[in-house]
Amino acid sequence: xxxxxxxxxxxxLFGDRLSVxxxxxxxxxxxxxxxxxxxPDAVVFPRTTAEVAxxxxxxxxxxxxxxxxxxxxxxxxxxxxxxxxxxxNFRDMAAxxxxxxxxxLVRVQPGITREALNHELRTTGLxxxxxPGANASIGGMAATRASGTTAVRYGTMRDNxxxxxxxxxxxxxxRTGTAAPKSAAGYDLTALFVGSEGTLGLMTELTxxxxxxxEAVMTAVAAFPSVGSAVDCVIATMQMGLTPARIEFxxxxxxxxxxxxxxxxxxxxxxxxxxxxxxxxxxxxxVRRFRDLADAFGAKDLDWAEKQEDRTRLWAARxxxxxxxxxxxxxxxxxxxxxCVPISALAQAVExxxxxxxxxxxxxxxxxxxxxxxxxxxxxxxxxxxxxxxxAKALAQRMAERSLRLGGTITGEHGVGFGKLxxxxxxxGAGWQVMGALKAxxxxxxxMNPGKLVPGQP
Amino acid sequence: xxxxxxxxxxxxLFGDRLSVxxxxxxxxxxxxxxxxxxxPDAVVFPRTTAEVAxxxxxxxxxxxxxxxxxxxxxxxxxxxxxxxxxxxNFRDMAAxxxxxxxxxLVRVQPGITREALNHELRTTGLxxxxxPGANASIGGMAATRASGTTAVRYGTMRDNxxxxxxxxxxxxxxRTGTAAPKSAAGYDLTALFVGSEGTLGLMTELTxxxxxxxEAVMTAVAAFPSVGSAVDCVIATMQMGLTPARIEFxxxxxxxxxxxxxxxxxxxxxxxxxxxxxxxxxxxxxVRRFRDLADAFGAKDLDWAEKQEDRTRLWAARxxxxxxxxxxxxxxxxxxxxxCVPISALAQAVExxxxxxxxxxxxxxxxxxxxxxxxxxxxxxxxxxxxxxxxAKALAQRMAERSLRLGGTITGEHGVGFGKLxxxxxxxGAGWQVMGALKAxxxxxxxMNPGKLVPGQP
Lengths: 458, 458
Known about the structure:
2 copies of one chain form a homodimer. By secondary structure, chain A is of the alpha+beta class.
């Protein structure tokens, strides 16, 4: 609950862009995942960096937490208000501020979504390739260090954010990075804020690296005799130095769900969905080499989608896989897991996970960005059965522990939020306390997205 | 000066791997640049992480600074003892600990040099491509966020360090990163330590990303009618989406120096030295496209070095350019500058710098990694003439200021040390104070390489 003086000061700053209406508050207590929490005390819709800075000063004066809000698509409760506070909705800060085509850079406000950004860029010959599936906001993607299908070639948000403007706790505004392609001038503050989930400050501007729209694109889908042979084909592809733009794994259950939902007729077997970008001459050789590898690993029905419409259909199906899997068990809710292991351990990780899920009694199709070692099980639970949620939670916990045992991480791309707080010590050991010390240095009153990512939280 | 109890406790830890001999101390007060400072009180040669941890605990107990020492090739005084203390020479921690070929990773100790590492990797089909010119230690390269000729394709140390083991002030040991290709699990501590120049802790182990040795390589050298046309050709090359493995600019003075020193007969004109890596089919098209671009920008004498020996000769000459330029003014010492600007500002930055140097009366050939916007002037001063050193220093200052004005950085790859401390506020504004707060959080007694990188230093 905000005190009267706090509320009235906030009203003075935001006028009718402050809301305490129950419907708006409830909207900002939602998440696409099963992770739930309380609701914010108020929601504001800033338009400028100066307003966000004034808000941070207000937050310090009145000791009220601030929680950034982008598109609401995060999966570990990152944007939920655990202890009340103000949700900072960046809906009205969603502009493209500058396109610098020669430098392949774009400056944007945090609220723009990746689809809106690429729509703005469509005539420039450039694109922003990071694609987590959801039409997330760029600010949210940076805050969670998102990645997705194209990271295997173009990198994650870590690699594609060149600089930031950040409002710190208390209201100071800093700028990180420059328009130069690299720098050795001190601590990499950009990298520190990317993935900090709003716990160190609020991003108000981002400078992103752009990439040329590919001159030519080839997409293929191939069915493999086993999970192991599909994964071994991925390892060989990466080792040969081929650089697919995407290389996605779908297990048989996922293929079945996609066939039903997106009206495809893919063979019911583990599949790789692969795409190459380049100039036509180089691409022809990439395609030839990948075909040879797929043959060597027993692929059947390798099918190159030469036409744009066939490619679009395949990737639309991949992007709809989450909804397809949800639809495969009517009424179910999904617990979406997210681990990332060394490529050498990928087959083992996937196969042990499949066996674990099979023994659990709940459905859990597996799919993932296997060129990166990153995969997800979509665990489907009946919301009326708390025992199923408990089973799913235990499965997710074992997936994360298995990933650590195999040298991997508890989250490849979804982040920590508070859903994965309990696993941070296991991954980082004393390093987690270091994160806490950094947080305390920049946000001593713990007003920036409290309860997330660092230790010692309520 | 170390107190007797401090010295005796240090002796108990390191035995005959502790040295206070004047010759050894003097050796650790040297630098390849004109930046000079005092000397350490002692030098130790640890063999294990446990020894480094014990040293850090000793440092806290006795309030004695620790300064890491790799190959001694840094250029801004990073490894010099400003206020005494102990130089930590990693000569005896230089092993390759593990090669994980399937994961394209290698674990190494910090003291190994990049040449020794690549020698160890030669039969694996893999390589570590980051190449700053000097045969620097990997630990030093990570600490300074080094890059060099190949960063345009393979990235800098920022992109190629996957994880670290770090001994913190006080002696706690943390591990950052995992063997998985990516992670969204909390603050990116790896990125925070890379480029921190030993001010936050001492790296005792590094996990590096490896790349496949290229199947085919093509190198070309091309003379351009002007600096502007050479730079415009670089911009067009990058915009076309060609990804050269290196693309280096040499101005006419540099070409003259290289011709004399390395017995080449390159035309006396601004030159680009470019290399492509790939499979033969893709490469043929890259080469064709680059040739067309070079033609369009007026290149003459475009010369493809098809034979390994010709390529080796060209790149050896490029690597020797620093020595070639030094030799062009017998007895001179070099002030090596290092700025990095947005590609769109590169021609302006180089041309203004050339004019500034020409008006200064001292020689200063220019060369650089222009695909990254990074270039250097090697300012040659007569060590017996302090006025020349002052002129060089003023030129370097103006280069950095020009870089900032054009949206660039004060250092592309050499780092801050204490040579560039005075420029940090201009680049980072309030962000520099944030760096200071992070430093204070992790090293409250200021024992880790004091006097470098952060504000408020002696």
